[in-house]
Amino acid sequence: MSFRTATAVIDCQALVDNFNIIKAMAPNTKMLAVLKANGYGHGLERIAKALPLADAFGVARIDEALALRAAGIIQPIVLLEGFFSPDELAILAVNDLQTIVHNKEQLDAICQAQLDRPLKVWLKIDTGMHRLGINPDEFNHFYTLLSQSKNVQQSLVLMSHLGCADECNNDITTTQIALFEQLTSTLSEEKSLANSAAIYAWPSAHYDWIRPGLMLYGVSPMQNTAEKVNANEQLSKISPVMTLQSSLIAVREITAGETVGYGGAWSCQSNTKIGVVAIGYGDGYPRHAKNGTPVLINGRRVPIVGRVSMDMITVDLGFEAQDRVGDLAILWGTNLPVEEIAHWATTIPYELLCNITRRVQIEVI
Ligand SMILES: Cc1ncc(COP(=O)(O)O)c(C=O)c1O
On the CB side of 256, how many CA atoms lie within 13 Å of its CA? Predict the structure, then answer.
């Protein structure tokens, strides 16, 4: 007897295919592949190594950047939140790491530092998302000081981030792009604005560097349901890099009126068979997945019934089911988009992918 426990199967060919599809969407741009949060749960070094043609990688923390360098990654690496302390500047210089500058503290630290070599800086402007970035009226000041600093390589990259690119018709995005254009159009520096959603939905935001994250992993960045997205030709070509799977560890017959799981939160209307799948919130499966959330058992969609537990979920296999202990269960991935599971769990696919926990086995294909 040997049952598969929770396993994330990582399909590196799907990753490369997605990379090429994204390149075709924005053919005249360079690509910074976003790998933060452990490559959106897919494995930081693994994803970087599988993308030798990426022009650069983006991470959120210096530790992630250093892990990539330690793994032998030689492409440019950009800290998407910049450095957190002036002490880090020397580390950036030695390891050839690039940094975003988005506030005055970072500007002052760079200008005052004693560095052996100048740093590549991406200057981040807040064009309306109001998260990170300098105010538009500070742009000339930052641009002038950074352009003149001996600690900064020439030239800068000018960038901003869009808050609503996942909606095709959104005035905020139109305004953000117009402001970015107004501030930077006369400048010769390289520019960068587009995350996955903008690569797909806002071609005028492509500029010189695109910055895909989610779409590289084969997940739609648009707010639509999976069905609507599948109807879209370009987006339907991307395929999931992660398939999360486990196995049935019990098949139980229950009688009409009996309840299943903690709190007796679900009771069956008629006699049925309940399958117990070895995965739960301890693996990163969302506890808030509602009754009805689909699971693929032997390629057939069956609904979750009862509450998600730490190590198990229960599904209604149906009275006639022939499924057996040890059979394969797919929680998301090929033929079951994580976008759809996110919808059932009232969250977003980013969160589900990042939440995969350490006990989940990884199988790379
Ligand atoms: C600055 C920046 N660029 C690009 C991305 C990639 O976004 P997405 O995963 O939606 O493509 C992110 C992710 O949040 C980001 O913070």
Answer: 3
3-state SS class at 301: strand
The best mutation among 19, 21, 32, 34 to test binding of ligand 1, ranked by most ligand atoms within 8 Å of the C-beta, falls on 34
**Residue 36 annotated as catalytic:** yes
| CA-closest candidate to residue 97, choices 115, 78, 110 | 78
Greatest extent of the chain over all pairs of C-alpha atoms, in Å: 77
Best substitution site from 35, 80, 338 to test ligand 1's pocket, by max atoms within 8 Å of Cβ?
A: 80
Summarize pLDDT for 277-331 with one digit per residue, the tens. 999 999 999 999 999 999 999 999 999 999 999 999 999 999 999 999 999 999 9
Compute the radius of gyration of the chain from its Cα atoms. 23
- Ligand 1 centre and the CA of 227: distance in Å? 24
- The alpha carbon of 301 and the centre of ligand 1 are apart by a number of angstroms equal to 32
% of the chain residues with pLDDT over 90: 93
Is ligand 1 within 6 A of the CB of residue 82? no
Q: Shortest CA distance to 22 belongs to which of 206, 159, 200, 194?
A: 200
Sign of the dihedral through C-alpha 49, 55, 61, 67:
positive
Output the CA–CA distances (angstroms, integers) from residue 50 to 243, 250, 274, in the order listed. 17, 37, 40
For ligand 1, whether the C-beta of 315 sits within 6 Å is no
Beta bridge partners of 85: none
Separation between Cα atoms, residue 285 and residue 315, nearest integer Å? 14
- Cα atoms in the 13 Å half-sphere on the side-chain side of 16: 10
Q: Is 40 noted as a catalytic residue in this protein?
A: no
Q: Which of 56, 65, 181, 190 is nearest to 123 (CA)?
A: 190
Q: Which of 23, 36, 124, 191 is catalytic?
A: 36
Q: How far is the CA of 266 from the centre of ligand 1 (A)?
A: 39
Residue nearest atom 6 of ligand 1, based on CA coordinates: 213
Q: What is the pLDDT of residues 181-235, one digit of tens each?
A: 999 999 999 999 999 999 999 999 999 999 999 999 999 998 654 444 554 677 8
The finding on whether 102 has its CB within 6 A of some atom of ligand 1 is no
Q: If we measure between CA atoms, which residue out of 128, 130, 60 comes closest to residue 97? A: 60
